[in-house]
Design a protein that fits this description.
The structure is a single chain. The chain has about 400 residues and is α/β, with parallel strands linked by helices. It has 2 domains: about 5-30 and about 295-405, Aspartate Aminotransferase, domain 1 (Alpha-Beta Complex), CATH 3.90.1150; about 40-290, Type I PLP-dependent aspartate aminotransferase-like (Major domain) (Aspartate Aminotransferase, domain 2, 3-Layer(aba) Sandwich). It is about 40% helix and about 15% strand. The strands form 5 sheets. It has a 7-stranded mixed beta sheet, with helices on both faces. It has a 4-stranded antiparallel beta sheet with strand order 13-14-17-16, covered by helices on one side. A hairpin with a 7-residue loop joins strand 13 and strand 14 (about 330-335). Helix 2 packs antiparallel against helix 10 (about 280-295), helix 11 runs parallel beside helix 14 and helix 12 crosses helix 14. The longest helix is centred in the N-terminal third of the chain and has 21 residues, at about 60-80. It is globular. The termini are far apart. The chain binds ligand 7TS.
Length: about 400
């Protein structure tokens, strides 16, 4: 599919913002949705909306097939061994919190260590801070190299035999760094720790194989990969999930309920209390079909090209600071002169260009970068080189504007 055909799947892109064609460069925050996903949601609500796993009526069976069918699509998409290892959650944040509260609180004790990195999103920082606070464990940070990458020698030095959990993002939402997760997993396992991967920024953009990574848990969100908001996934190795307690209790997750004691359903349902995110899962299934149709390798190559082009163009502008390594995923985070990134984003918005400004939910990383905020342009399968040119022109205009005030 060429880029024009791809863009035709995204009706939202075909509009003007502030009198200019919309240039959407904020897909790392949330991606736009193709018609196939919008229609899957609408068809579910129009034609077979019904609760799952309960009734024997026809609509209920169709909804259950749609919901469980989506689980199988996710399993195949990340190459998990079994559907029992795929738990639907509200997003990456919820998935990481489940691991922290269920696995973390039972398996970590005083004196143990939890290891993360300076580049983690708050969703992969705060759940571990909480576990450390409650258990008396220590939260340790793997330092970063000057260019925003992780050196394996630093992982070796930080992870010890006291480490129970290592939790690292595969792709940074700020630096674009692609972390050597397979190697970090090996180091974690060598020390007897479990490996948790925050896949929020990798799953939408590259082929993921959880069995090849050999990680123990893997979390991601549907809304960053063309799916709806409110749906995400926690993958966990079956043998670990089987020994973990649910963190939410109620309907749908029980086998038998007595007056004082109850028993849980088998995996994955014991972790899915209450009416599940039926429409969200069906929408995520449609998003996976869409991404697979185009091909994850093609998507990754397209974004890589855009990021390299953007780096090349942006680095030619005087006063630009660009954060992160040269080899990176499809995003560029920057500051220009001493213009506040919110001002950069505001001027760009007047040109119809949507970028993000702020700390990107990564305050430990901002501290490491010694800035309070940055601007970020992030790319996806529907972005073009022409849009990068507009970004570059918009930034030049911002620079000019602020040099005159
Ligand atoms: N982990 C990473 C690496 C992320 O980038 C995000 C969201 C999350 C976890 C949390 O995902 P959620 O869907 O549960 O909210 N990142 C961003 C961002 O970079 N800008 O807005 C949200």
């Amino acid at each position: 599919m060429n880029i024009h055909d791809i863009r035709a799947h995204f009706p939202i892109l075909n509009q003007q913002v502030n009198g200019n064609d919309l240039v959407y460069l904020d897909s790392a925050a949330t991606s736009q949705k193709p018609l196939a996903v919008i229609e899957a949601l609408s068809t579910y609500y129009k034609e077979y909306n019904s609760n799952v796993h309960r009734g024997v009526h026809t609509l209920g069976t169709k909804a259950t097939d749609g919901y469980e069918g989506a689980r199988e699509k996710v399993r195949r998409f990340i190459n998990a061994k079994s559907m029992q290892e795929i738990i639907f959650t509200r997003g990456a944040t919820t998935a990481l919190n489940i691991v922290a509260q269920s696995y973390g609180l039972t398996n970590v004790k005083e004196g143990d260590e939890i290891v993360i990195t300076y580049m983690e999103h708050h969703a992969n920082v705060i759940p571990w801070q909480q576990v450390a606070k409650i258990t008396g464990a220590t939260l340790k940070y793997i330092p970063l190299q000057e260019d925003g990458t992780i050196a394996l020698k630093d992982v070796e030095e930080t992870v010890t035999s006291n480490t129970k959990i290592v939790s690292v993002m595969l792709v940074s939402n700020v630096l674009g760094t692609i972390n050597p997760i397979k190697e970090i997993t090996e180091i974690a396992h060598k020390n007897g720790a479990v490996m948790v991967v925050d896949g929020a920024q990798s799953t939408p953009h590259m082929k993921i194989d959880v069995r090849d990574l050999d990680c123990d848990f893997y979390a991601f969100s549907g809304h960053k990969m063309c799916g709806p908001t409110g749906i995400g996934v926690l993958y966990g190795k079956k043998q670990l999930l089987e020994n973990m307690e649910p963190v939410e209790f109620g309907g749908e997750m029980i086998d038998f309920v007595g007056l004082q004691e109850s028993t849980w359903k088998e995996l994955p349902w014991k972790f899915e209390a209450g009416t599940p995110i039926i429409a969200g899962a069906i929408g995520l299934g449609a998003a996976i079909d869409f991404l697979e149709d185009i091909g994850l390798d093609a998507i990754e190559a397209h974004e890589h090209k855009l990021a390299q082009y953007a780096l090349e163009q942006l680095s030619q502008i005087d006063g630009m600071t660009i954060y992160g390594p040269k080899h990176r995923a499809g995003l560029v985070t920057f500051n220009i002169d001493d213009v506040h990134p919110h001002d950069v984003a505001t001027v760009l918005d007047a040109e119809g260009i949507a970028v993000r400004a702020g700390h990107h939910c990564a305050q430990p990383l901002m501290k490491w970068l010694k800035v309070s905020a940055t601007a970020r342009a992030s790319f996806y399968l529907y972005n073009t080189e022409e849009e990068v040119d507009k970004l570059v022109a918009g930034i030049k205009k911002t620079k000019e504007y602020f040099s005159n005030v």
